[in-house]
TrEMBL record:
This is Spermidine/putrescine transport system permease protein. The lineage of its organism: Bacteria, Bacillati, Bacillota, Bacilli, Bacillales. It holds the Pfam family BPD_transp_1. Keywords: Cell membrane, Membrane, Transmembrane, Transmembrane helix, Transport. It is found in: Cell membrane. It is a multi-pass membrane protein. Residues 57-259 form the ABC transmembrane type-1 domain. PANTHER family: INNER MEMBRANE ABC TRANSPORTER PERMEASE PROTEIN YDCU-RELATED, INNER MEMBRANE ABC TRANSPORTER PERMEASE PROTEIN YDCU-RELATED-RELATED. SUPFAM superfamilies: MetI-like (SSF161098). InterPro entries: MetI-like, MetI-like_sf. CDD domains: TM_PBP2. The chain crosses the membrane at residues 12-33, 53-76, 88-105, 141-158, 238-258.
Amino acid sequence: MRDRVAKGPLIPYLLWIAFFVIAPIALIVYYSMLDLNGNFTLENYKRFFSPVYIQMTLTSFFYAVIITFFTLLISYPMAFILTKTKHKYLWLMFIIIPSWINLLLKTYAFIGIFGLYGPINAVVSVFGIESQQILFTDFSFIFVSVYIFIPFMIIPIFNSLDKLNPTLVDAARDLGASPFTTFRRVIWPLTIEGVKSGIQVTFIPALSLFMITRLIAGNQVITLGTAIEQQFLVAQNWGMGSTIAVFLVLIMLVSMLFTGRKAKGGRV
């Protein structure tokens, strides 16, 4: 009787997982084995291992790593400063609020900012410098992506830093540890789980970006997300689009397993 009561609340959760996680993935796998005529084939998987798609996968991975690196580079110091600031939760809210705005609206805002007649080029022209094409470049793509992912990276890191026992930092300093040593041996190891969570919520979505690549990068950057969109909406090749999606899911799962490992215990 106790087992039934204990398992009862799990039923809605299991049904949710079955209908909205397992079933869609199974449907994607099914469509990945169909050609344009609806016949069973493995040709889509063979095509994925062609140089074009391998290069596209490496490009997606490269940009995802770059975006995650710069997002972490900005977010960790910012989260650390927030924990030492008065009214830290108020300032954190100001950082989170932009993430509530629709992604498409923010993207169009950056199109205006980076445009030839935008505020950046207007300021540059004051110094007699010719207007520069900032849009449709790697810089604009990475900049906008980092801006969008910063709130998602900051939150888990902020939570880890906020829960850090300050007496451990004080003890390290009393024992003669330099600020860098204190960070390397105390602060970083004790907040690494927050960093891993931030990397997960940044790296995994960065692999499948497609709206920003189209509007900000002008399709100069072709990622797996862009390829999926083109296969489904332009080429109407659901089989190839599903195949790319299958490999994208596999890459995401590997990334989650890698970043989800618990840090080995060590000396502090």
